[in-house]
Amino acid sequence: MTALFALATSLLWGLADFGGGLLTRRIPALTVVVASQTIAVIVLGAIVIATGGWTEWGPQLWFAVGAGLVGPVAMLSFYKALALGPMGVVSPLGSLGVVVPVGVGLFLGERPGVPQFAGIAVAVVGILLAGGPELRGAPVQRQAVLLTLLAAFGFGAVMALISEASSTMTGLFLALFVQRVTNVAAGGAALYVSVKRGGTALPEGTGMGVIRASLPALAFVGLADVAANGTYSIAAQNGPVTVAAVLASLYPVVTALAARMVLHERLRGIQAAGAGLALVGTVLLAS
Question: Residue 31: which residues within 8 A CB-CB, separation 6 or more?
Fold first, then answer.
């Protein structure tokens, strides 16, 4: 179950990142974050009401609040980095955040077997190589790397926090709802400050028209990200966090493949080799 839900997480995060990266090429990144998460809040609110999830209210929800505060910073940094592109380079570097939940799991006493330790090492190397490391180049490329590293550790912190925010399915719905409400509040405040300082909330020339046209894509990004948080929480609660975190961090491979198929970004030899290593690591982790 841990492997299944963790791999589902990587698929959902990979597709959400791809969609978010495309949207930020037409819409300001903060607006993408706030709009997509607002849609998620509406859907999750309905689910919480329907399932009676509000009865699970308790101190553990502070973990969800923490994840909600860190999440917008990580998402904004990552979307900006994806917009600078190329996605096949930026996305794998975002997986470095896996060291946060893996470190937490080891600190709490988890001790995977030898095949799992080997799988962790192979998968992480593969994920990094899948991006075709390019740490040198123009200033824009260096900016993309710095933004991605900031996002990576933010994503890792969210993974560690959200896995502690609930212990039941209805409690998970409530935790995700609280996380997203916090996301919208923090992101909305940042958007307000940005506009006050002269930034833009809507694309120049098209305004709300492009937002309305992009609603299906925004909904997909927001709901896929929510679902990924949910499947990761289930994976982490039903097995070793060290295994769940690494398998969930395979999402850069999904993003790179989506960019290859849709945007026709060419995969370098090192990227293809990295994808293969990531798959080998997956098999070792699930063994």
Answer: 191, 201, 202, 211
